[in-house]
Amino acid sequence: MSLEEMFKPTVSVIVPVLNAEETIGDLLDSLMKVDYDRDRLEIILVDGGSTDRTREIIRKYPVKLIVEKKKGLNVARNTGVRSSNGEIILFTDSDCVVPKDWIRKIAKNFKDKEIGCVGGNVSRCEDNFLSRYADESIMPALRRFKRRRILENLEPPMNYPAGCNMAFRREVFEKVGEFDEEIHHGYDEVEFVERVCKAGYKMALDPKATIKHKHRKDVKRLFRQTFSYGKGGALVLRKKGIKDRITKWNAILLAGFLIWLFACFLFAFLSIFYNILYV
Question: Which helix (H) or strand (E) holds 152?
Fold first, then answer.
């Protein structure tokens, strides 16, 4: 038996859900097919108050369903962690689909005892224009790593895990606390990851641990998602100040955007002024 086969920690997969009737079935179907020992795996779904058929669909599967009255993605994550038993806590989202070997590829990164956090790649399910744009734009919606890296801290702009494909040792929560439930909209997982790294743990970014994500289907939803990320970044900046790596990077991005916006207006004004005087 190889060392990889011998290393099989218990794993808790936690999925926050809210009004996910259109996507949750595909995720659960994929989780039922993972090639990880069932006696070393638990799947926990935390419903944040769905008003559609989400809970009805979930109850058809051999998983644990928790109904959380308090709203918020990080609230659901924390509720799931408190109700879990695994040595490794693995998170995904209700609009994802995971491959059979997903849990194995995530878990093997934890053979290194210095690793406290693991993030994998996220790619599109559908091959349409908006999905390609979300994956391949200058600032992609989710994470895609070209090679495996071990980092001691976040490396902005994109070298940190996506919330829908990230895992932690249980001991991490005992050492650094829970997800900050006051952070909404976006960057909800980034602040926690940075705390983990500050506590002395290393972070593994593994492109082989790839899942599929159902990106937003129209421009309005994609714009709303991007706007939400911006609100989350501003909230983290306001809450923590410019003292952490991620908040410093957010401040630089905001300043760069404002400078770019000012330059665009200035260029437009000068063009109009020139045309009035000389054309």
Answer: none
Instruction: Give the position of tokens 């790294």.
Output: 197
**Cα–Cα distance, 248 to 136 (Å, whole number):** 25
Is the pLDDT at 257 greater than 80, yes or no? no
65, burial (CB in 10 Å: exposed 0-12, middle 13-18, buried 19+): middle
Assess contact for 63 and 33: CB atoms under 8 A: no
Confidence of residue 129 (pLDDT cuts 50, 70, 90): very low
- Side chain identity, residue 249: W
Whether the pLDDT of residue 131 is over 50: the answer is no
What SS3 class is residue 17?
A: strand
Radius of gyration for the alpha carbons in the chain, expressed in angstroms and rounded: 21
Distance CA 106, CA 203 (A): 12
Q: Which two tokens stand for residue 228?
A: 């939400």
Burial call 13-35: b when 16+ CB within 10 Å, e when fewer: bbbbbbbbbebbbbbbebbeebe
